[in-house]
Design brief:
The protein has four helices and no strands. The longest helix is centred in the middle third of the chain and has 24 residues.
Length: 107
């Protein structure tokens, strides 16, 4: 159950990072609140995941999911650059996440 929890925690990390972008420097209350709640949920789920997973692996996967999702949504939502190099490096993060999952005995 730890890997699915970690995946959901990573999704909430994406939510809070995107929420921060919409909060306009924490000046808009609703996006700021959404980001804060998502942060809390993300960290609580990460804490639950590290009860069974090695903390280094869980943290690397959690931040990797957040980085890939946030960078991808940055391209889609905020018209950030989508160069071949950028997409390639995002892909390398995905390879790292999958690799950590495989060598950590994930289901």
């Amino acid at each position: 159950m730890s890997w699915p929890l970690l995946f959901v925690a990573g999704c909430f990390e994406i939510a809070w990072a995107i929420g921060l972008a919409y909060s306009d420097g924490l000046s808009r209350p609703v996006p700021t609140l959404v980001a804060g709640v998502a942060m809390l949920v993300s960290v609580v789920l990460l804490a639950r995941a590290v009860e069974e997973l090695p903390v280094g692996t869980a943290y690397a996967v959690w931040t990797g999911i957040g980085a890939v999702g946030t960078a991808s949504l940055g391209i889609v939502l905020f018209d950030e650059s989508a160069t071949l190099a950028r997409i390639g490096f995002i892909g390398l993060i995905v390879v790292g996440i999958v690799g950590l999952h495989l060598v950590s005995g994930g289901p």
